Amino acid sequence: MTLGPVEGLSIKGMATVWPEDLTGPSACMADEDVYAALLGNDWKLQLDAASWDYSRTERELGVRSRSWTRDTDIDSIDLAIAAAEKALADAGMSPARVDCIIVATCTPTHVTSTIAAKLAKMLGASAAAIDIRAGGAGAINAVATAASYHATGCGVSLVVAAEVSSKYLGEHDLSNALLFGDGAAAVVIESDSSKGGLAAAVIGNSGWSGIPFTVSGTLPPEEGGGDFVFQRPDDVYRRCLADSWREATNELRNISGEELLTEIAPYAVTRTQLGEVCAAFELPGKSALQLLEQHGCTGCVSPLAAMIEHWQQCRNARGDFGGEVLATLAVAGGISWSGLIWRS
Q: Residues with Cβ < 8 Å from 246, sequence gap 6 or more?
């Protein structure tokens, strides 16, 4: 499905929040911290016995550190509220100005309840509250949904993405533990007279087989009926995922048309995956690479955080981020995918 354009939209405020912003620097986990947390004090002996390649994390994944809420009381709603408040402060707006709150997450505080309405209540906002569950593509879908609401009368929207993937890591699951990190991102969008806004969006899905990354526990839960942690994907699924990335990349290139993109900020799983997307658009993807290195794969937060990082760098360098034409793309376990182009 192709959407857009929806013009006359401006990003008025933006923010990213990481666990260390709430709990201190100990939340930032280097590789050795991950090894100790999952394997104990004799982790080096265990890894040497297993002939573990210590350079793999940075060389293959592109990750040097990640931030965790694991073993703390901080949850996705806490990260979401911190990012929302920070973005509203950046916009110079009170929660009362917000007409619509859209929250994307793969790791909500409760299975059956709305995190968006809870966020609205905690902000003290009287706004429509909408939840998005779309795996790693959730934040992109949330931005596209917000643009659609603006097209039909919404004045101000708040889009938030928050993830606490570290709480869903298996006890000895080093592969996923070295990859996944937690965090949140938020943007405040306002309808105005500008020429900015959603240039186009594309949303689709692909067939797949094999064993995926996704948490394997089925619902409703049964005693002994499922393991509620991330699982290791097999080669069959990895090939399906790679095919989906190529499909989504082609679709996003097709809708870009004559747009002169200034940067791309895709969902970052690994350096290799990110590099292939950036090469297809002949753009560097610096913000996504930087966030992957510093914070790991942060689920649906990743593309929104990369967009924000790019806009903030432009704003710091020249005072604003007007004139940027930014593309983003994500493929989610399931498999669904989304991409959009935003003019500022």
A: none
Cβ burial of 51 (10 Å; 0-12, 13-18, 19+) is exposed
Give the Cα separation of 169 and 165 in Å (integer).
7
Q: Quick one: 114 exposed, middle or buried, by C-beta within 10 A (0-12, 13-18, 19+)?
A: middle
Q: What is the pLDDT of residue 88?
A: 98
CATH 3.40.47.10 assigned to 196-343: yes
User: Which H helix or E strand runs over 237?
Assistant: helix 235-256
Give every strand in the sheet of 156-163, ordered side by side: 9-17, 183-191, 156-163, 100-104, 128-132
- CATH assignment, 9-191: 3.40.47.10
Report pLDDT for 122: 97
pLDDT tens per residue across span 143-176: 999 999 999 999 999 999 999 999 999 988 999 9
C-beta separation of 264 from 277 below 8 A: yes
Mean pLDDT, residues 244-254 taken together: 95
Please list the residue range(s) of the chain that carry CATH number 3.40.47.10: 9-191, 196-343
- How far is residue 117's CA from residue 136's CA, in Å, rounded to a whole number? 21
pLDDT tens-place string over residues 27-36 = 999 999 999 9
